[in-house]
Structures are given as C-alpha cells and as structure tokens.
Amino acid sequence: MIAGRVRCSPVPAAAALVALALVGAACASEPDRSVAMVPSSFTDLTDAIDAALDTETVWIIAGSSRLVSQLADGADADLLITADRETMQRAVDADLVDTPLGVVASNRLVLAVAPGNPAGIDELADLTDDDLLIGVCAIEVPCGRLAEQATTTIGLTVAADTEEPNVRSLALKITRGELDGGLIYATDARAFALDTVDDDALAPFVTDYVAASVHTAGREGAGREIVDLLRSAEGRDILLARGFSLP
Amino acid sequence: MSRPRSQTPWPLAVPAVFAAALLVVPIVGLLQQAPWSTLSERLTSPEIRDAMRVSAIVSVVAAALCLALGLPLAWVLARSSRRGIGLLRALVLLPMVLPPVVGGTALLFALGRRGLFGRWLDRVFGVTLPFTTAGAVVAATFVALPFFVTTLESALREEGIALDEAAATAGASPWSTFVHVTLPSMRSAIAAGLALSWARALGEFGATITFAGSLGGRTRTLPVETFLALEQDPESAVAISVLLLAISLGVLIGLRGRWLSR
Amino acid sequence: MIIRLHGTVRLGELVLDMELDLVAGVTMVSGPNGAGKTTLLRTIAGLEALDTGSLLLAGKPVDVPATGTFVATHERPVAMAFQDHRLFPHLSVLDNVAFPFRRRGFGREDARRKARPHVSALGLDDHAAARPGTLSIGQRQRCALARTLATPADVVLLDEPLASIDDDSKTRIREQLRGLDHGCVVWVTHDPTDATGRGDPSMSPPGPHIAIEAGRVRQTR
Q1: % of chain B surpassing 70 pLDDT
Q2: Which domain range does residue C143 map to?
Q3: Cβ contact (<8 Å) for A178 and B230?
Q4: 3-state class of C185 per DSSP?
Q5: Gap from B3 CA to chain C (nearest CA, Å)
Q6: d(C-alpha A16, C-alpha A10), whole Å
Q7: C46 touches chain B (CB under 8 A)
Q8: How far is residue B16 from each of residues A11, A14, B255, measured CA to CA in Å?
Q9: Complex confidence, ipTM
C-alpha cells in the first residue's frame, strides 16, 4: 500500500463510466433496422412478420395511447399502427405522422368464457348477471371503448366486476378462472385458447388497426413493407391464423 | 460564539448533489405540468371523488390491519430467541423487495377463486377476495405490513428487555408487561409505523390492480385512476399525482421530528 | 431457609458456582467487578436460568434443570432493585411505585394509596407526580427503591441500591434498608460501609456475608 498523502479519488472514474453508460443507452437502435410501433394485440404477429419479410424489425409494442405519447416525446419510428381510429386521429392532429396507410387488420369483440365454462355462460344476457364474475376493459383503452359501444348499442348493462387496464390482463384472469367471462378481442381468445359464445349481435363491433408512416427516423418508405405484407395473401394467412379479421 | 462548520469533502458533495437532483427533478417536472387553474375542478369530479373514497377506506383499513397483525409480529421478531426467527424476518421483508405486480400475482395464485387457499375460502365460506374492496385491502396490507413491522421491530430492539425485566420482578406477567409497559413506550414508534404503512397502502398500485382489479367505486383507487387517466386525460393524471404528492409530503413532514431525532 | 441455591450458571465465558443457604435477614454480597454479583441476583430472580443444580425459594423449587422445572420471574416471591433503576418512563413516581400493587389486582386509587407511604419513606413526596425523565439520578434511584420495597416479596434483591444516592440521604436510607424485615434481603454492594452501618471499614460485617471470587459464590459466616 502506498503511504503518505495520495490524491487518488475514485470519483472521476465513476463519473466517466456513468456518462458512457448513458450515451450507450441512448444509442441503442441500429441505423439499418426499421422501427415499427404497434399495439399490444400485435405481440404474436411480430415474429411471423419478421420471418415472412426476412428482416429484423425493431418492434415497439405498447398500448396505442402510449405509442402516440412516445412519438410526441420524440421517439424515432418508421411506422405507427394504432388499435383504433380515434387514437390515430390524435396522432394526425398532433402532426406526428406522415402518410396515412389505411386499415391493415381488424379485431372482433368476443365474449370469452373461463375454461370449462363453469358458470354456464351461453348468451350475451349472462353478462348482466350480478352473481357471475364478469370483466371488461377500462373505457380508457380501445378494447374498453369497443365493449362500451357494443353493450350500449345492444342494450345491455354489464354487471362488470373489473375494468382491466389492458386486454391481456383481462384475458389472463379469464384463463385462470378468476373471472367467469369477459369481453375481449378475438385474437386474445385465440392466443389464450379460450372458448367464446357466438352471438351475431356482436358481429358489427370490430376495431380497425390503422397504419401510418412516420418521418421521425428519417428513412423514406421504411416500414411500408410491413403494411404491404399484411395486405398480401401471405399476410392475410398470418392474420387469420391468429384470429384477426380482414379489413 | 459560532461553531466551526464541518467541510463536506468534494468526492461526497458532488454525488450527493446529483442524488438530490435525481430525486427532486421529477417532482419539479410534475409540478410544472400541473393544471393549476383547473385543479380543484378536476379533483372534485365524480370519478376522482369515488377513487378518493375507495383509497381512503382501503388505506385506513389496511393501516389498521398492519397495526393489529404487525405489532404482535414485530414483538415476536424482536423478543424471540428461537432459531428460524431470521428466516421469518426475511419472509416478512419479502413484500418490500418484491415487485408489486409479482406480489399481486402471488396473491391471486394463493387467494384467488382458483387459488391454493382461495378455493377453500370460496367453497367453505363463500368468500371471494378478488374484485372486491376487501381484496384491495388485502393487497394493500400485503405491501404495507413490512413497513410497519420493521419500524416497530427496530424500536422494540432499541428499547430492549430492561423494562420488561423490571416489570417481571414487580410481578407483571408477560402479557401484562406488554400492555402496561411495552405498548406505552412504543407510542411514537406506533404512530410512525402507522403513518408509513398508511402512506404505502395509499400509493399501492401493482398488487391492487393484479389482485383486486379495477372498478369505479369498489376497487379503483387513486393510483389506479391515475394510471388509467394517463391513457386519455393526462392532465387529470397529473392533478391526482399532485394530490398524492401533497399527501406524501404531509406524512413525511409530520414524521420529521421522529426521523431527525433518532 | 428462604433461599437454597446450589448450582451453576454460565456468565459469559465464566461458570459461576453457587452454594447458598440464606435465612431471613440482610446478607451482603461483595466481590470484584464482573465477578458475578449481578448474575447471582438475576439467577435468584429468574432472569437467568441455572445450568445445573437447584434453586428453592421459601421451600418451593423454582429452578431445577434436571427436571425441567422453571418458575417464571413474575411468579416468584421476589422483588428487585436494578443498578440502572429501570423506571417506567410513561408513569409518574407515584404510579411507578404503585405498579406492583396494580399488577396484584388493586384498582388505581387503592394502589396509589398503598404506594404513598413508600414514596414518603424515600423522601419523594414533592415529586410524586413527576415523570422519571425530570428527576435527578439520586431521586430516580430512590423511586426505584420505593418501587422495590412496595413489591410484596419473601426475597428482596438489591443491586448497588445506594450507588447514586446523594450523601445527605445515604445514611438514612441505609438504615431503612438494613432495618427491613421483609424476609431475605440480598444486597450487592461495593461500599463496605453498607455492611457495617458505621463509617469504619475495618470493622467486620455483623451479618451473613457472601463473597464472590474466581467464579465461586461462597457464604461466609
């Protein structure tokens, strides 16, 4: 050990390391990959799309409102897809997107039941049964708005026991049997292998996934191939396999 | 006659300033975004009033449960010399280090309708905890209990058994000693523990929304309301955040005497 | 025979070997610091347990490791004055002294009534309503003594009872303690004057005496 007065402070080294880490974190994205912002329902699509296009897209998956907020805060992206028209309109109004690319997919609202259907739900009217544990999405999220629209139009007062903040957590609780049933998207019912109650009254209630290209990443035309794929025959197969409907 | 001021060595001062900034800057950012002109109007809307009512009930009942359950537990941890007490203490601290959503998931798996104990509760007593206010209370108590227990345990340890021994030699049974000697000496620790656990219960989100869900007037607490408001109405989210911030600061300032005097 | 103690107890790394048979009256305990004087008192009180041997108080076995017999402190006929006083901070002087009566079933006013003579005897009338935190160290020790004397017991254990008492009161209180006819008083002290009652340390102590040395507690005389 060195004796005497040694001025060997660890602080400058630590400061340099912290600075490097911060800079490194900020430069996480690579220059060549497309950046696509998609809603949570697209989670199971991303691998299939990458496989079909033979690329490695950078996927930013979040609730549609969050995606728009992130864009507003300056995130870099090439493509934005939202889970309903309303949210895309907000992005358009805030001048965050470039060229609208139209509807790429749709998702039906379905009444899913717990495995084995222990509560014996067989019609929409069962949603009004106080004795059953029913879940819907909160009205602040697209799935919730759609459910509200559907039940109001059909004339049902849902005896909901919970209004979940996202459709995945709702689907999870139905799958666990903690809820007897709930209104979720067809894709989530497929993903969780849940049985659904068929009722034509629900058929018109569909949410549209709207796409738009974004200029913030500075790449012309990037991200458009994803939209083109989804409109192709191969893309349609991919969508249908996961429970999406065609626009 | 002034006392010489002790100098803060700069290798300590610089990181300390950064640390203070890290803590203060987000709060300043929040306050700067607050919709001050519409604040009172937003905070008195029916949804937020409902959320306030639910939060008030859940946090107060949870704090009361923390006292009823946490005080005996703290006593056992502080006074018992059995083997395995260390393990028990680690388990008690677990909710403090566990991500709240994980805690909520664990509660669901244990106390949900299909859960390990939950199915028995459902079958024998017809009691379902998820999606009820009681469920929200359970989730809040789960995360807040360790705060109460640690506050009380350290106070009990510090007090030591000296007074217990004196009471015993004066003829007091262990229970009588607890009621007439230990409890009175724990008054300020109990107050601090209650304040901390109440504040934690009030701010609880992850475990609550995973276990109890969210329904206006029943389980939709202020933090849940904030999270959902962020989706469509960020200004309301900020308004509620300012309210919760004010409450938290109030608790901390109220406790400052106790913290600083230690 | 009020105390029959024949056994050993561990004192840190030391093992204390004790042989005592004490009748009513005042017995002094002397020995160097750390020898085990306090441990002896704590063992009789039940705050420490014997490792081997037996302890009988007033004819009743209270600590017999071999048979697993152990009577808890609060059920033993003992009263103890601690070196560090240990007054209850949330109670007044009067209520501290009344504490033993309250625990024996007396109501608050009855217990206070019974406590007052002891408070007076130790010269604390003027401070009866004060909290221990406001008292001087001498007053605190007197309050602790009053509480001990108010505890009905066959065995009174005093650990340096006069150590913090101011000199003017010392002689008077010393005489009070020496005059106790409570039963068996075991008095740990550093001060030889406590034993003789007079200012002359060279005079041999009149009563029974316990000396603790090198881990052995032996009764002399």
Answers
A1: 97
A2: 3-220
A3: no
A4: strand
A5: 29
A6: 10
A7: yes
A8: 12, 14, 23
A9: 0.91
Cβ-proximal residues to A219 (8 Å cutoff; 6+ apart), any chain = A34, A78
DSSP percent split of chain B into helix, strand, coil, nearest 5: 80, 0, 20
- What digits encode the pLDDT tens for the residues C21-41? 988 888 888 888 777 889 999
Q: Which residues of A touch B (CB under 8 A)?
A: 9-11, 14-15, 63, 65-66, 69, 133, 135, 138, 140-141, 160-165, 169, 173, 176-179
- Separation CA A63–CA A53 (nearest Å): 24
Q: Which of B22, B48, B107, B113 to mutate to test the interface with A (most CBs of A within 10 A)?
A: B113
pLDDT band at B63 (very low <50, low <70, confident <90, very high): very high
| Residue of C37, C43, C44, C122 lying closest to C87 (CA atoms) | C122
Q: Do residues B217 and B201 lie in contact, with contact meaning Cβ atoms separated by under 8 Å?
A: no
User: Per residue, what are the HEC states of A186-236?
Assistant: HHHHHHCCCEEECCHHHCCCEEEEEEEECCCCCCCCCCHHHHHHHHCHHHH
Amino acid identity of residue C97, one-letter, is: V
* Residues 133-152 of chain C whose Cβ lies under 8 A from any Cβ of chain B: 147-148, 151
- At residue B262, the pLDDT reads 42
Query: What are the residue boundaries of the structural domains of chain B, listed by start?
Result: 44-261
Chain B CA closest to residue C103: B172
Distance of CA C66 to the CA centre of its chain: 27
Kindly state the percentage of chain C with pLDDT values over 70. Answer: 93
Question: Does B149 or A16 have the greater pLDDT score?
Answer: B149
> Could you tell me if C198 lies within 8 Å of chain B, comparing CB atoms?
no
The answer to whether A144 touches B231, Cβ cutoff 8 Å, is: no
- Chain B residues in contact with C87 by the CB 8 A cut-off are 166
Residues 6+ apart with CB under 8 A from B190: B67, B71, B152, B183
* A153-157, C21-25, C59-63: least confidently modelled range: C21-25
> In the predicted model, is pLDDT for residue B170 greater than 80?
yes
Q: What is the CATH number of domain A107-206?
A: 3.40.190.120
pLDDT for the residue numbered C205: 53
CB atoms B185 and C89 under 8 Å:
yes
Query: What are the start-end ranges of the H helices in B34-132?
Result: 39-43, 46-79, 85-97, 100-111, 118-120
The neighbouring-strand residues paired with A163 are A136
* Chain mean pLDDT for chain A: 86
CATH number at residue C203: 3.40.50.300
Domain total of chain C = 1
Interchain pair C74, B171: CB under 8 A: yes
Let me know if the fold of A30-106+208-241 is the same as that of A107-206: yes
B113: nearest CB among A10, A11, A178: A178
Contact (Cβ atoms closer than 8 angstroms) between residue C118 and residue B170 = no
C90 and B185: CB-CB below 8 Å?
yes
> Domain A30-106+208-241 belongs to what architecture?
3-Layer(aba) Sandwich (3.40)
A141 with B231: Cβ contact below 8 A: yes
SS3 B6: coil
Question: Which residues on chain B are in Cβ contact (under 8 Å) with A65?
Answer: 230-232
Nearest to C76 by CA among B126, B171, A150: B171
Domain boundaries, chain A: 30-106+208-241, 107-206
Fold held by B44-261: MetI-like fold (1.10.3720)
Task: Please report residues of B whose CB lies closer than 8 A to that of A133.
Answer: 113, 128, 130-131
- For residue B162, give the nearest of C82, C71, C97, C141 by alpha carbon: C82
pLDDT at A188 over 70: yes
